[in-house]
From TrEMBL:
Protein name, entry field: 3'(2'),5'-bisphosphate nucleotidase
Annotated InterPro entries: DPNP, Inositol_monoP_metal-BS, Inositol_monoP_superfamily, Inositol_monophosphatase-like, Inositol_monophosphatase_CS
Amino-acid positions noted as binding Mg(2+) in the UniProt annotation, renumbered to this chain: 86, 162, 164-165, 309
The species this protein was found in: Exidia glandulosa HHB12029
SUPFAM superfamilies: Carbohydrate phosphatase (SSF56655)
Amino acid sequence: MSLAFALEKQVAISAVLRACSLTSAVFNKLVKNETLVKGDKSPVTGEHSTRVILASDTLPVADYSAQAVINVILAQAFPSDPIVGEEDSADLRNDADPTSATLRSRITELANEALALPLRDWEKAEWGIGPTHGQRTTFQLLDAIDRGNFSGARKGRMWTLDPIDGTKGFLRGEQYAVCLALIEDSEVKLGVMGCPNLPLKAGDEAGEKGCIFVAVKGQGSEQRPISSLQDATPIHIPTRPLSELRTLESVEAAHSSQSTTGRIAQALGITAAPVRMDSQAKYCSLARGDGDIYLRMPTGVGYVEKIWDHAGGSLLVTEAGGVVSDSRGQPLDFGLGRTLGENFGVIASGKDVHPSVLEAVRKARAEESQKL
Ligand SMILES: Nc1ncnc2c1ncn2[C@@H]1O[C@H](COP(=O)(O)O)[C@@H](O)[C@H]1OP(=O)(O)O
Ligand SMILES: [Mg+2]
Ligand SMILES: [Mg+2]
Ligand SMILES: [Mg+2]
């Protein structure tokens, strides 16, 4: 008897793998070029001018194309499943914008290149003959991007997708993640996150990079090297003494209040500097024990977190033996639509330390309100 969500898991891994290949290709072809052009301040002419048009739009090119690829594959396997995706194609259809035609043709080329990647042995073994992903026209790809327009729901089954989570990290050549999750009746059942720049072993910058993390509700969490997807290693959050814990937080101060996370660490007696990392790679690092406490504290500007930024990562951590809540200890509610509208920040850690972290959050908040 096959395990629950076996097909969904295979399809999601294949889709994320192809999107990772696409985002890595975009980075290598375009972002690096742009850095060079900007870095040496050389005059931008001829071939370079084309590169700059493309490269300055690298962010949407990679995000749109990756969303198109994943949505094409999901639509083929599960045609009636709705998708809550971060991107939509409205800007790409706007012919008043002179760059939109260039973007469309680049997206078509990149997405079709990723869809044409041959099946890996692992996929053939799992699927038998396996699916083939035929080439798509530009407008089929725009329609595929727009399959991500579902508004979310409390009941029923849906996917949620962030084609590039941590865009700032992506552009810096640091951490980012391709994040896909399946939600049923507001509960995350499957999470697949591709982290092309994450070393297989924490801190081993010289070693192999590129991991896919997978969690299925009730079946645990695992890590697979992108280079050999059949090698799944189960991952668990280790138990460490409080004095040895490290916090994980955003690189971007605008995404999480670093003064509040500093106070929380202090209240816990943590002396080690925070590990700062972009994207849901933080959840992945926590789930395999590279860091211990993920703190995401609101900055006070009223930003509401999106479901695609937390669905897969939160399941990965809970299936690795951890707890994920908002900063008040409430569970994340994935049934309210496209956002985590009722939640306030995110706190994730091993089970044992989670109550102490919530207590430290209360203390940090009390200190901050006294200062006001
Ligand atoms: N003001 C904000 N506060 C919190 N998160 C934000 C804000 N603006 C964008 N984000 C999203 O935060 C996530 C990355 O956060 P971090 O890397 O700091 O953990 C991304 O999903 C990013 O969107 P995007 O997917 O467009 O990059
Ligand atoms: Mg995101
Ligand atoms: Mg994104
Ligand atoms: Mg974005």
